[in-house]
Amino acid sequence: MRNIKFSRRSLLRGLGYGAPFCAGLAKNLYAQTAPRITRVAMFAYANGSHYGSEPTGSGTTFALKPHLAPLEAVRNDIIVFKNLTMIRDPGNAHRGASFSVFGLGNATSVDQVFANQLKSTTPLASLELAVGQTSGDGGVIPGLSQVNGSFLPGANNPVAAYQRIADRITGGAPPPSTGTPPMTTPTEAEQALLRRKSVLDFVKEDVKMLRGRLGSAEAAKLDFYTESLRTLERDITGIIPTPTNPTTPPPPTTTPMCTKIPAPTITTRTMMNDMPAHSRLYLDVVAMAFACNVTRVASMMWGGGENNERIKFGNIDISAWHSVSHGDPDSGPGQQIINMQVYFAQEFLYFVQKLKSISDGGYTLLDNTAAILCTQNGSSQLGAAANFAATDHPPQHAPFVVAGSCGGAWTTGRLIDIGGRNHNDVYVSIARAIGMNVTTIGRASWCKGPAIT
Amino acid sequence: MKAGVSLPAVGLAGLAAGLMLAACTGNIGDARGGSGIIPGSAGAGMAPVGVGGSAGSSPPTTLNCTGALPLAPSRAWRLTTTQIANTLRDQFGFVPPSIGSLPADTRLDGFANQSAKLTISPFVAETYFAMGQELGANAVANPSRFGITCDVTKLAPGACLSGFLSATGQKMWRRPLTPTELASLTTLFTTTSGQGGPGAAVTSVIQALFLSPNFLHRTELGTVAQPGSVTPLTDHEIASALSYLLWDSAPDDELLSLASQSQLRDRTVLLAQARRLFDARDKSGAAINNFLQQWLRIENLSFAVKDAAMFPIATPEITEDLKEELRLFSNSILFDTGGDRSFKTLFTASYTFVNARTAPIYGITGVTGNAMVRRDLDRTQRRGVISMAPFLWGKSHASETNLVGRGAYFRAELLCHRVPLPAGGVPPGAFAPPNSTGRQKFEIHSTGGCASCHQLFDGIGFALENYDAIGRFRTTEFGQTIDPTGTLPLPSENNALPGMAFSTFVDLVDKLAEKPDLYGCFAQQYASYAAGRDLPEIDACEKQAIADQFSRANYKVDELLLAVIGSPSFVDRKN
User: A339, B293, B516, B525: least CB-packed within 10 angstroms?
Assistant: First the structure.
């Protein structure tokens, strides 16, 4: 007996997904006018930007500063911004950024808004990753994503990140050529899934009973738990029946989209000094998650709050990151911060190029993705000659990159001057690209309209 | 080109004219021009603990506290990760390794155990699922620990299964299971046994017990369901409230037995049990150390990297030594023979514990090896826990102290006055001239619009300048003599200016120790921690009642714990 969840799987199959697992389902629906499967990946790092990071130029003839120089290799695939403000609420700048970099002024962060929009189409609503520490007056937070003001912890070691995705990649041997699914006894794996369902059903009953005794604020916490329990559910079926038409032409020979990468072995928590050894493991997991349609929303915090780690690798030699970000931006400390930003741009480049290398129907995975690179503010320490605004950690002139066209929603390879508007507006464009009919996202008063036109 | 230059002190030249001053005086709520609701924070606002957040320093001089104290709402309070680990270790002798994937709990304002913030996200739920799996495997391998007295491979509905479910169920949920619950679990066992055999079913049942909100939460519901009514906690809820407060772990057999006999609502019995739990120092010491570490933000130590060139003795091992120093110091007062259990001693004593690595911080010679040994400190230089390295090291930058931060933190956490950041943000300014002392860098705070807030705490910072970024005592900085004099307006005196004058930090401590502010605040902090709610949310009369009892008990910390436990708000809730 199998308990087949049709809602997700049939949707995915109907859209041409799961194709690698069903040799018989050959139609490439991208030849039709089905909406493209869009993804969003968001990366944010701590301690803000060196003040000179903004690209110059306009339109397609933009020039990157050293802070983003590695992205020259994919200049045709990115949009860079000028005069963008990483708006935040007053108070400690790092604390404000913790709430607003993904939070956009609301109690539920934008990645979770996207996840909510897309969750019925994938086994996992979203993947949160959070490495490095957060500390100081910026608060101890386990990530930048929030639901109703509660921060969501991100996976902080490669194995934990991998496991969230890998054991949701179902499918194994191709189905037999006769087209009839064999009725065998459940395999061990299937039995485990059945037991899982029994356990979760039991627990959900308990939650319901307790919830009935609680007032609304407390009940909300249990509702959140119920939602979390749903992510534990798994499709039971491991064998997908073939369609009845065996004469369908075979699929075009492309590189298999979904490749289950080998499991990493690193279980230690990733701190900034571990990034050279760990970072690409995470990026490969996100790419795998997207390629295998396990989730369509991923977010990653690269240090948060007032991360004050000692960082030494490559050309980076920082005694304490937050402290150095407040050092003289026009000499040694400033150069170190630039070196950090270059490092993150290199990691972002790796991710972008990886997505570019994966086919997604008639497109690349990057074509169907919006990948974001940003930080807490536009300038952690003004130089002697600079004076952008009379506030600390000015949020203006923040470096902000979008890679990919999110399903052909816009053209890339250009600079957009958004005239001081907030990062919310970029996410309005992304929201619309993934199918949300909105003109604001996050706090409405922080929005003026879609930034990418 | 020197890498790793740390924070320069930005002198505040050119202040904006219209700085809003109202924020300092302690108005709860946002005096910042209403730019919007701050998401997620329970009334405390955005700003950090040290400088910002809702204030509330000046207690009203006349509180009408004649009526019954308001009760906290009924709730389900999720266990912290530490509590989960301790519970499993105490009940089964096993902590599932996947617990290592759980992140530290969020901490913004106040303590990290606030029930409103302890939620279960998808990632956490998955980790709990994995932990349940590991615990289940442990049960199959060690059946007797889980009350399985027969062959696991032959488990089926009957006495053996019922014995397992009752024993393990009670250990996990901290109360006997009802017949309905046992029946549901039996059904679950049968179903999952058909889906993989009895061994697999044992794991499934344990996973279900683990993931159930009955394990992951402590309920504070009582038996009265009517909205708006007072609901007295059940005896078992009281048992858990007591043991998780004093031990960060599940009630033991004696507590459970008293609960089953409905004895715990008897205040005499309750307080006697509280005393018994406190005296079990292995467990209560760890729990109270957890509170003290949070109170002093000792988690900063793990991230308080120091400039290696300036502080060659600042090796990574030292931060563990410093945590141990605090633990030994507080244990010496609270648990060791001869300890007087007084908070005043915690705040004013002049001794500590050092090993070979940390002795140089205090200028102590002749200490060798890793073991921490007790040594007296120079009474002209050190007074109590704030003048010791664990706090000072953690509350300093990489190569500089943190004059403003230390002062603001002291005011927020020792005087319970969180002063918000200026409304328009910190104004920009120029870098201070090189080789300026701390006082020179920040003296500008005493001019113009800055003074109204900074006079509340900068004085403390100036005095603490006698301790460098790793807590060593110093009398000069850049060749200039440090001037540690200052004034401190006191909340108990409505922050009247100029405030209490002092000549050094030692003098500040000695004088402050004779005022009520410190003790009242510490009592409130503990009440907040015990309640799992942030300080501003605790009723003002409740806070005053606890502070009064603490004072009458001569500031004994164990008496403070008993005062909190003996309060009606410990055993009753309101729907």
Answer: B516
CA distance A261 to chain B (A): 21
Q: What is the dihedral of CA B465, B470, B475, B478, to 10 degrees?
A: -90
How far A65 CA lies from chain B's nearest CA (Å)? 21
Alpha-carbon gap: B307 to the closest alpha carbon of chain A (Å): 6
Q: What single DSSP character describes residue B7?
A: P
Per-residue confidence (pLDDT) for residue A24, from 0 to 100: 28
DSSP helix/strand/coil, A44: strand
Task: Collect contacts of B260-265 with beta carbons under 8 A, ≥24 apart.
Answer: B260/B176, B260/B235, B260/B236, B262/B235, B263/B235, B264/B235, B264/B238, B264/B239, B265/B232, B265/B235, B265/B238, B265/B571
Which residue positions in chain B have pLDDT lower than 70?
A: 1-62, 424-432
pTM listed for this prediction: 0.86
- Joined together, the tokens standing for residue B350 give 């002049």
Cα distance between residue A143 and residue B122, in whole Å: 13
- Cβ distance A91 to B575 less than 8 Å, yes or no, reads no
Q: Using an 8 Å CB-CB cutoff, list chain A residues near B129.
A: 232
Amino acid at B434: P
How do the residues of chain B divide into helix, strand and coil, expressed in percent and rounded to 5? 50, 10, 45
A387 vs A410, which has greater pLDDT? A410
**Segment holding B488, helix H or strand E:** strand B486-488
End-to-end CA distance of chain A: 51
Q: Which tens digits make up the pLDDT trace of B437-468?
A: 999 888 888 887 889 999 999 999 999 999 99
Instruction: Say whether A327 and B5 touch across the interface (CB within 8 A).
Output: yes
Angle at alpha carbon of residue A354, lines to A353 and A357, rounded to 5°: 90
Cβ contacts of A195 within 8 Å, gap of 6 or more: B192, B195, B196, B200, B201, B204
- Answer positive or negative: Cα dihedral of B64, B68, B74, B78: positive
Tell me how far apart the alpha carbons of residues B364 and B358 are, in angstroms, rounded to a whole number.
9
- Residue B103 sits at the chain A interface (C-beta within 8 Å): yes
CB of B428 within 8 Å of a chain A CB? The answer is yes
Q: Which residue does chain A place closest to B575, by CA atoms?
A: A215
A315: Cβ contacts below 8 Å, ≥ 6 apart: A339
List pLDDT tens digits, range B118-157: 999 999 999 999 999 999 999 999 999 999 999 999 999 9
DSSP B109-129: SS-TT-TTT----HHHHHHHH
Q: What is the dihedral of CA B34, B35, B41, B46, to 10 degrees?
A: -100
DSSP letter string, A64-79: --GGGGGGGGGGGGEE
Pick from B374, B302, B508, B246: nearest CA to A136:
B302
Q: Note whether B3 contacts A93, CB cutoff 8 Å.
A: no
Task: Give the ranges where A5-50 is alpha helix by DSSP (H).
Answer: 6-14
